[in-house]
Amino acid sequence: MTLIFDLHVASRGVQAACSLGAGRTLGLTGPNGCGKSTVLDVLAGLLIPSCGHASLQGRTLFNLDDDARGTWVAPHRRAVTLMAQRPLLFPHLSVLENVAFAQRSRGLTRRAAREAAMGWLREVGAERFASRQPDALSGGQAQRVALARALAAEPELLLLDEPLAPVDAAGKEDLRELLSRVLEGRTAVVVSHDPADVEHLADEVLTLGV
Ligand SMILES: Nc1ncnc2c1ncn2[C@@H]1O[C@H](COP(=O)(O)OP(=O)(O)OP(=O)(O)O)[C@@H](O)[C@H]1O
């Protein structure tokens, strides 16, 4: 199993456990407030759970079980990328610079990072927006750019929180097809409250209760 987790966040009453094979997509579903975003935050390293453990490709992400010495790996060392519910693009950077940011952070030259970023924008059908500022994008366009930025980080685990939420019904089918293509062969967790999206995108399903 590539992704293994068993976690508990006492302050939010959230408990979840799962083992996921390499290249597979887990659909995380359940009613409002059941803890879907909380699970993603814990896996991304944005929230420290009360107890539990998680590993990715045999590497520990955290191990806070009673009998463990207590390991917690910082978010930027996890090779995990979270695409949040809102696109959260950097407002002062162009679309291209937003997507190039991950590679620039990893030490690529400006030119190499921009070339790679253009490739990812092409991948998600957003290359025509490359020179725009984020505030000139629609919700669906911004979501595609956010997806390109997440992919550009080349994470071992991709976390998507309600990726279809910002698009209207007309754009939903296109974005769903795009996500389906992009998720093929990637290890990912996709949160959605919509059973149709989970059915379409996920290989396995974990339903949380309230
Ligand atoms: N920042 C926070 N501080 C304290 N409690 C929080 C915080 N965010 C969420 N919670 C609580 O944690 C629980 C789980 O919330 P979470 O947002 O993970 O659920 P969710 O399933 O993603 O909900 P939704 O479908 O509405 O996005 C809820 O009871 C919520 O009130």
From TrEMBL:
Gene Ontology molecular functions: ATP binding; ATP hydrolysis activity
Keyword RNA-binding: no
Protein name, per record: ATP-binding cassette domain-containing protein
Pfam families assigned to the protein according to its UniProt record, in alphabetical order: ABC_tran
Source organism of this protein record: Kocuria subflava
Matching InterPro entries: AAA+_ATPase, ABC_SmlMolc_Importer, ABC_transporter-like_ATP-bd, ABC_transporter-like_CS, P-loop_NTPase
Domain ABC transporter: 2-210
Sorted UniProt keywords: ATP-binding, Nucleotide-binding, Transport
SUPFAM superfamilies the UniProt entry points to: P-loop containing nucleoside triphosphate hydrolases
Keyword hit for Nucleotide-binding: yes
Signal sequence bounds: none
